[in-house]
Specification:
about 120 residues; mainly alpha; elongated
Length: about 120
């Protein structure tokens, strides 16, 4: 269950459930959008209808619907802050934590073998 769905079910209203559904769809679109930007696809640049443009309005709705619990929506909050304006303006360098989410998992080094005593 996503954090959006958990908050919507906690509030229990039709409006909260509807917002939770829209937030989940926005989240998926935002993740896909940022992955395309990091891949360097030149035909996928930020514009007025990209998910970055929706972040502030959705955060405002979440604050109204969920109250202080909306602060738990860190992904939404991070995209609604000043960094989202930088994305819309064409500077498409996502924050380091967003880049790390797509990085391949690190391999742990093999344990050093200890000398065998016979």
């Amino acid at each position: 269950m996503t954090p959006y769905a958990m908050l919507g079910s906690h509030i229990g209203t039709h409006e909260a459930a509807s917002l939770s559904s829209r937030l989940s769809a926005w989240h998926d679109a935002m993740v896909a959008h940022e992955r395309r930007l990091r891949a360097g696809l030149t035909d996928d640049v930020c514009h007025d209808e990209c998910p970055h443009a929706e972040a502030r309005a959705l955060l405002s709705e979440a604050l109204q619907a969920f109250g202080s619990r909306a602060q738990e929506l860190t992904f939404l909050r991070s995209r609604a802050d000043d960094d989202s304006r930088r994305h819309r303006s064409g500077n498409v360098h996502p924050p380091a934590y967003a880049q790390a989410a797509d990085a391949p998992p690190r391999r742990r080094p093999a344990p050093a073998s200890s000398p065998h005593h016979a």
